[in-house]
Each structure stands twice: as C-alpha cells, then as structure tokens.
Fold each of these.
Amino acid sequence: MTSNDEALADLRHALAASEDRYRRLAEAMPQLVWTLDREGRLDFVNQRWVAYSGLTLEESASERRGEVLHPGDRPEMMRRWREAQATLGPFEVYGRIRRAADGAYRWFHISAAPALEENGELAGWVATASDVEDRIRAETSLTLLADVSDVLARAVDEQRMFQEVAQLAARTIADWCAVYLRGEAGDVRIAALAHADPEKLARAVDAVRRYPVRADDPVAQLIEAGRSVLDPHVGKDVLRASTYDERHFALATQLDLASAIVVPLVIREERAGALVFVRGSESRP
C-alpha cells in the first residue's frame, strides 16, 4: 500500500467516525485534500489546496476548478473520473496542477476513493493530491537520455536524426523543439521542428518556409557566439528581432512562445548550429 493509499484509508475512516476529526486530519496532511458528496459536488478543500491553487472552496466548486488543471491532462482525468463514478471504484491519475504563486504547473499523483456508509451506500468521495514533480522530472530526464542515445545509435541520416531528437524533446521536456543548422557560408536554417499539436506545428512549418532565418536573428547570433541562453519570459522584442514584417510577427505571436533555452550544437569542435527548446504559457517556464 502506498503512502497515498494509506492517507485515503485514514481519511475515509476519520470521515466515517467524525466530521470534525476528519477535517482536523485533512488540515494536518501534507497533501492537497478535497471531498465530494455522493453526487460528485465539491464540499470541502483543505487550506493547502487553497494556498496552492489560489481558489477558495466556493471558487473550486465552480467552473474555475478546471482552470488549474493542465489542458493536456483534463480529458484523461475526466474520463477516469466518470469511470470511477460509474463503478464506485478507485480513481488514480498523474496530472499537472497550476500553482497560483507563479503560474507554474507541477505534477501530482491524484487519488480518490468512495467513502461508504455502514450499510454500504455511497456517502461521498475523498481525494488527495501528492506533489511528485521532482520524481517525474528525474524520470523524464533519464528516459530522454536513453531515447536520444537510441536515436543516435540507429540514425540513418542527419536530417532524420535531428527530426527524431526534436520530436522526443517536444514530447518530454518542451512544447516546441527546433534544430538550427549553420551552413558553410554562415547562413542559418531551421532543419527540424516539432510540437505535439499538429495545427500549431503546421502553422510554424508554413512560417519557416515563407521566412528564412534572418542573419541578425537572436538564435543565429548565439550560434556565432557559441553561447547558451535561458530566456524565462520571451518578450515581444525577441519576436520582433526574429521576424521580417508585421505578418510574420503576428504568426510568431500566435505560436505561444513563452520561455526558451538555446543550446549551441557543436560537432567535431565546429559551431554547427543550436538546439532550441520552448515552452508555451500554459507550461512551467
């Protein structure tokens, strides 16, 4: 039995014994805790939930509750929740919840289980969420390293290798990944581009075809200097410096480029280009 399972068992027992005892236990726990009635309506949240999410009980019970869940995780969460309600079985999922203090999403292990009356009828639901961000990030890093090593080992050609690396990054550590390559004449082009959303990727690919990388593009300048840069808040000035005209600028702003890391790509001691990792506004910077 995991610590989360034990916490749920203690909460269900406390709920059956005494509401006051339950509330005191819920407030003492390090997890985010909430309960729902038999109809699935939220009726309690502990102070850790309020402090983390920035939502009161009343706000959490409204449609605003969905605002703190990562958009990419909501469909699977709702599917599993409906399944748990239908079967009165346990609910368990990993999902990202937004932190009010800085807008960052962190990974949580979320569990919910039915609380039953003595006669076996449903009294409500008890749920907890445990922060597992550090563990998920460590596992993701190790998995990415293993996957990249596999790509490099079986790469048939350079173009395919770069595209597969970009796709791996876009599925794990970033929303966007682009590979910039430097030509013999010093010109720079985008050789690979990846994003999980096909629609956004199609718009970006179209923009790349229409507008080649400018000689004074910030990434091109970083490649020339051989520097790594972290930009936690990509501003409009950066987009202006990368685009040709108002139409190009408008396309760039629609791509939701919120924070970025540019890392030089060095091959045989030559400045070959750069790897660019970008996250959108709904992801952790």
Note: Strands lie at 32-37, 42-45, 91-98, 105-116, 122-131, 176-182, 188-195, 229-231, 259-267, 270-279.
Amino acid sequence: NTGVVKINLDAEIKNAFCDGIHNYEELNKEKNLLGKYIEPKKWLREIQKAIIKKVNSSIKEYNAKDTL
C-alpha cells in the first residue's frame, strides 16, 4: 500500500502492439492477401484494441485509477 512501483509502460505497450498484430493474423489466417485483409486501418484498429486492453489492465493491476 505504501510503496513505489516502477513499471516500464513503454515496453508493455510495445508488447501489446505485437499482440494486436498477432491477434489480427490469427483471426484472418484463412483469408488470402487480397482486399480487406491487407487494409492498414483494420490492422491498426486491432492494435488499438490490444493497447487499450493492456493499459486498462495495468491501471487496474497497479491500483492507479484516479491517481493522476
């Protein structure tokens, strides 16, 4: 309760970025490389979802909600 926790949030976000790409590939691995599969907006949206999920879980894990 009364300590300091130092985390490297930058590294966590980088890992979430890679997880987002991996998730998108897993969801669409049966599709070919034509059309909507290679559209960058779809990749970026999946990456955003992964980063949002990671940041929210980190906030909850470190009890950082409403502290800044």
Note: The CA atoms of residues 25 and 43 lie 9 Å apart.
Amino acid sequence: MKNLTLTLILVIITQIVHSQSTLDIRFNSLDSGRVVLLNRLTNKTDTLLISNHHLLYKDVVKVPTLFHLIVESYNDTRPINLVLSNEKTEIEFSQFTKSIETDNIKEIYPNQPIFRTDPNNNQVFYQFFARWTNFYQRIQELSSDDSQELLEKRKEAYHSFLTLCETIINDNKSQYYITSIKS
C-alpha cells in the first residue's frame, strides 16, 4: 500500500511539473531588477527578480494565456505582451530601454523580445507589431497637412500595411487555433 501511494504521488508530481509553463528570459543589459508578470486570464500578479541578467518563471497554465511583462522603472505603463502555455518559452532582450511617452511610437515601445523558443508563436505578433509601428510612424510623418499628395502617400502606406498584414496571416494561418474556456 505504501509503494502504491508513493507511486501515485510521483505520477501526480510528474504531471504537475510537465504542465507548468516556463518563461526563461535573458536581459543582456540588465543585471538586476524587479519584474511584474500579470496573467490576463486570472489577473494573478507575480513579482520576480532579475538576477545576473536572468529571470525564470514557472507556473501552471492550462490554456495559452496572455501575460503582461513589466520591468519596473522601464516599461511601467507599456507592458510587453507574451502568450504562455504549458510549454517552455525562452526570450532575450539584447538591450532593455526605458519607455518614453512621446510622439515617436518606437520610443514608447522600444523593447522587442528575441524569441529563442516560442511554442505559442509570439514572434508573429511581434512581426505584426513591428509593421504596425512602422506604419504608424509613417502616417505621423505624412500628416503635416491635408494636401492631395500627402493623402495619396497615406493611402499608399495604408494599403502597403494591409498587404503586409495579409502576408503575415497567410504565412501563419496553420498556427492559429481557438481555445474555449468553460466557466
């Protein structure tokens, strides 16, 4: 009976360990700091510490879930979006820069993760996001007046952006899936 109980406990522990998501982050420019990770599905917040340029997060995530990552004093009002699941995600930030509230969208969102292991296809979101920030910046540049010439350039930028978005969707359509969550 004792062996059966011990075996059952080991099986349960193994299942729990295998159902934990792992977020492994390397911050090349930050040796230490506090990170807040917010689970948008449950609104659970975890505070983690960067130690020796590194952060490791483990938690049970039953379905792919959106998380907001905030490095205190760097992107407090502009979180980094990550989808995590029960699989390991490894990312790196070659340079982590403070977000600056300005008219320049690239200064508002300066930190783009480099995905080393990405089972939830976060890099597709960041491909879209890079194109969107380029589009936004271009529209800002072309909005100095309402001349016909600038209007045509804005239309061209808009249609180019839509074509790029369509390409991203078509190139990754096999990656999309719908998860239903029963209450």
Note: The CA atoms of residues 34 and 72 lie 6 Å apart.
